[in-house]
Design a protein that fits this description.
Blueprint (H helix, E strand, L loop, with lengths): L2 E10 L5 E9 L2 E7 H15 L16 H20 L5 H15 L6 E7 L5 E7 L4 H12 L9 E8 L5 E6 L6 H8 L4 E7 L6 H6 L2 H16 L7 H13 L2 H8 L8 E2 L3 E3 L6 E7 L3 E7 L5 E7 L3 E11 L10 E10 L5 E7 L3 H29 L48
Parallel strand pairs: 4-8
Antiparallel strand pairs: 1-2, 2-3, 4-5, 6-7, 6-8, 9-11, 10-11, 10-16, 11-12, 12-13, 14-15, 15-16
């Protein structure tokens, strides 16, 4: 999860007193709006229970703040949110309860019974009877029950916020966090083309075998595979396509998936067309993230296509940067430009940053965190097996691949000045290194 506060808004109360409202973003989209007093009260409640586990909270100022002091507080609140949400010593219940309350109050949606339509990859819908205050993890359980999927598979699927585009296709906007309120998130988009969709959320191809053992899981994978193929996320060769069409026609789902697994880029998550600075500046690129690689198919100035594979094990860190708005107006927070960058090892200790300009930068970062977590889990399992087989040999546990360092794998956060006050200069953005969080 990536929390940041890129926008602050100055308001006045009924008595003319000035206060600041902080626009809190989660994975690149507005999640809620908070006042300093909201977070301060929450911090006091947490400290009564968890004490020293909490990071420092920004101090209260009883006199008017200068712009520098105001910006420092914004940065500290940003860091506080990120650290608290990532602290395993703090009860997730306490964190999630507050965040859900803030999201619901921001968009003024009352707690009520409602019907939420959850899209399947083939365009069909599952109608779930929920409450508007139900978090994504609860809604996912309800959808699982509707689809007759076993609870053991909950970790392999997630709810995503998607936007419909032409030809029945869709664009993935974000993966919903477990505490996020799907009904509120959907309403907050104020866009009829936006929907909630259930999709697999893993990258490790070996997990397919586990899911395929269940007939309902097999069906869901099958529907997503067909959808991804139709959208060009993976492209089979002519012979493979002919076989896949034949299996699809006869409804042989398991055989279809077994053939699909042999196709290049099957199981990858594909971003929309974007711009990459490698191997040439401003190169139109299609980016796919898989379990073992980041794949970039780039159109060169010579109009030729070049495909580059960046091994996940050689990615040291990555960042998301908010650069500004495409109009140059800092008040237009819905038109923010983003870039996703990762540091890659070319051998002989030669490192280079690869930069991709895309509005799905936070989504790419989410994919990278998922891949990182899956590699970590597999490496720990392997070490545990070795320790059982060779109890007399001490093995130093390696949680991640050789070059993957998670202490830096966080977004770079930035700020847009107040939508009320406006900006005094064009360059209103600054970066915060993820390690500072």
């Amino acid at each position: 999860m990536h929390f940041n506060i890129p926008v602050i808004e100055e308001q006045t109360d009924k008595l003319g007193g000035r206060f600041v409202v902080y626009h809190v973003y989660l994975d690149g989209l507005l999640y809620c709006k908070m006042k300093y007093s909201d977070m301060h009260k929450w911090d006091e409640e947490l400290r009564r229970v968890f004490g020293d586990c909490l990071p420092p909270f920004p101090p209260n100022y009883y006199l008017s703040m200068t712009e520098t002091m105001e910006d420092e507080r914004r940065l500290l609140l940003e860091q506080y949110l990120q650290k608290v949400s990532a602290n395993s010593s703090i009860s997730k219940h306490e964190i999630y309860t507050f965040l859900r309350k803030m999201q619901q109050e921001t968009f003024k949606i009352p707690i009520q019974n409602c019907l939420l339509e959850v899209l399947l990859p083939d365009g069909e819908k599952v109608r779930a009877d929920i409450q508007s205050s139900d978090p994504a993890e609860r809604v996912l359980e309800i959808v699982f029950c509707k689809l007759q999927l076993p609870r053991q598979m909950l970790e392999y699927f997630s709810l995503f916020l998607v936007e419909g585009i032409s030809g029945g296709q869709y664009s993935v906007l974000k993966k919903l966090a477990p505490f996020e309120l799907p009904y509120v998130s959907l309403k907050s988009m104020n866009d009829e083309q936006c929907m909630i969709m259930i999709r697999k959320s893993y990258f490790d191809p070996e997990i397919d075998r586990i899911v395929m053992e269940n007939s309902c899981g097999l069906n869901l994978l099958y529907l997503q595979a067909i959808s991804d193929m139709e959208m060009g996320c993976w492209t089979p060769a002519n012979e493979q396509l002919e076989k896949l069409r034949s299996l699809q026609k006869t409804g042989r789902k398991k055989e279809f998936l077994e053939v699909a697994q042999q196709v290049k880029h099957y199981g990858y998550m594909q971003a929309e067309a974007c711009i990459c600075e490698h191997p040439e500046p401003n190169s139109p690129t299609v980016v796919r993230v898989g379990y073992e690689e980041i794949n970039c198919c780039t159109q060169l100035l010579s109009n030729q296509a070049e495909e580059t594979s960046f091994e996940i094990s050689k990615v040291r860190c990555w960042s998301v940067r908010l650069l500004g708005t495409s109009t140059g107006n800092p008040s237009e927070e819905d038109d923010i430009k983003l870039e996703f960058s990762f540091e890659y090892c070319y051998g002989n200790d030669t490192w280079k940053w690869i930069t991709i300009h895309t509005h799905q930068a936070f989504l790419l970062s989410t994919f990278m965190h998922q891949v990182e977590a899956e590699h970590a889990a597999k490496n720990l399992d392997l070490v545990d097996e070795m320790e059982i087989e060779m109890p007399d040999v001490q093995i130093k546990k390696q949680s991640f691949p050789k070059y993957l360092k998670t202490d830096k794998a966080r977004p770079t956060l930035t700020r847009i000045k107040s939508t009320v006050r406006g900006s005094k200069e064009d360059d209103v953005f600054e970066g915060i290194q993820e390690k500072d969080l």
